[in-house]
Design a protein that fits this description.
Blueprint lengths: L6 E3 H7 L4 H8 L3 E3 L7 H16 L8 E5 L10 H9 L5 E5 L5 H14 L5 E9 L9 H4 L4 E9 L6 E9 L7 E2 L11 H5 L6 E2 L1 H23 L8 E4 L4 H11 L10 H4 L6 H11 L8 E8 L3 E8 L11 H37 L1
The protein binds oxa(dethia)-CoA (UT7).
Length: 364
């Protein structure tokens, strides 16, 4: 995982708008969020999280077959952010695409990555959730500005034998609810014009209460249905790792499922809602703090704009035995990243030189 160093506390926000630390904590459970500084983007966070994932997996970037970056805040409408990740990692054998399922994006991408491996088509798939939603917030709207933060999380999926890994997946959507959480302008329906900008239509808009109602049922139902698909009873789930939108949503879903709150991984106090990054960041922290152990039955659940929801039931295998790779392997990966930077520059230069030569030849 990667989160920016810069922190915005509730008190900082109270200086910007009519809100308070007390209100935000009580109504959401959020105390702080990490936000990008100048020069940091969705791609730069995704690259750093991916490098850390490759480190934990002790993997060679050139062995990755596919990179999926789940994001609704790509660096640009095109090219895909996943291609920037592919280039920076030196993942020369990988296909790369972005997936937009808003806050459900990472869990959608995990299901897609699992299917890509299960089909036998791909051996190693890098799945990343990364978002910079603070770049799409109206900092005068206290109903949304206090909720979100920035970050990225990544996992490397590999084919493996045995009773571990992804056991069941579930994807859902209800496009009739598209208007309750949306960024109206910037797409083909409403291109970015001076008028759209003046009206702030490029900012995120949300009907908080409607999303809240949807989220509590979507979270509980998606967790229950995917467990059933995996052949598990609810009691057998060791940890639920839900999208981190609001602690009250998680508590309501826990009550609905009849599970104690301790089974749910909650870290939104520190990060707020990081959209597609929230589930992999929570997973990463849960593994690091020992909340998730090898053999555990996990249910990952995403929900958000679309409306979308997704869940994955998986048996945690644990990081590879050699979780602390040798200095040689660390150095080797570092050299691949340096080589990737040079390769990228050289290819850009070569493309420009070829274009110049073609122009000269055409003139003759
Ligand atoms: O990734 C998925 C995306 N989003 C979500 O999951 C969000 C789902 N919704 C929520 O989490 C909650 O609906 C919110 C946290 C957004 C709002 O909490 P709420 O308990 O539903 O509050 P509310 O919208 O019913 O507003 C209650 C009051 C209102 O004042 P009045 O009309 O009662 O005088 C709001 O204007 O709280 C006011 N309010 C605030 N006050 C201080 C709304 N935002 C703030 C704020 N600070 N930041």
């Amino acid at each position: 995982m990667y989160v920016p160093e810069r922190i915005l506390t509730n008190d900082d926000l109270a200086h910007l708008m009519d809100t308070s630390d007390g209100w935000i904590r009580e109504r959401t459970g959020i105390a702080r969020r990490h936000v990008v500084s100048a020069g940091e983007t969705t791609a730069s966070m995704a690259i750093e999280a991916s490098r850390r994932a490759l480190q934990v997996a002790d993997a060679d970037p050139r062995d990755i077959d596919l990179i999926i970056v789940a994001t609704s805040t790509p660096d640009h409408p095109m090219p895909p952010t996943a291609c920037r990740v592919q280039d920076a990692l030196g993942a020369t054998q990988a296909g790369a695409f972005d997936l937009n399922a808003a806050c459900s994006g990472f869990v959608y991408a995990l299901a897609a990555g699992h299917q890509a491996i299960a089909s036998g088509e791909h051996g190693q798939v890098l799945v990343v959730g990364a978002d910079t939603l603070t770049s799409r917030l109206d900092w005068t709207d206290r109903g949304t500005a206090v909720l979100f933060g920035d970050g990225a999380g990544a996992v490397l999926l590999r084919a493996a034998d045995g009773q571990a890994g992804v056991m069941a997946t579930l994807l859902g959507a209800d496009g009739s609810g598209g208007d309750v959480l949306m960024i109206p302008a910037g797409g083909s329906a409403m291109p970015l014009t001076h008028e759209a900008l003046a009206q702030g239509l490029h900012y995120l808009r949300m009907d908080g209460r409607q999303v809240y109602r949807f989220a509590t049922t979507a979270l509980a139902d998606a967790a229950e249905q995917v467990s059933r698909k995996a052949g598990w009873s609810l009691e057998e789930i060791d940890r639920v790792i839900p999208h981190q939108a609001n602690v009250r949503i998680i508590a309501a879903a826990a009550r609905r499922l009849g599970l104690p709150m301790e089974r749910f991984v909650v870290n939104l106090e520190e990060y707020g809602n990081t959209s597609a990054a929230s589930v992999p960041i929570a997973l990463c922290e849960a593994v690091a703090t020992g909340l998730v152990r090898p053999g555990d039955r996990l249910v990952l659940v995403g929900f958000g704009a679309g409306l979308t929801w997704a869940s994955v039931a998986l048996r945690w295998r644990g990081a590879p035995e050699e979780a602390v790779p040798s200095w040689y392997r660390v150095w080797w990966r570092w050299s691949i990243y340096q080589w990737a930077r040079l390769r990228s520059r050289a290819r850009r230069l070569a493309r420009r030189a070829t274009a110049a030569l073609v122009r000269v030849a055409m003139r003759r």
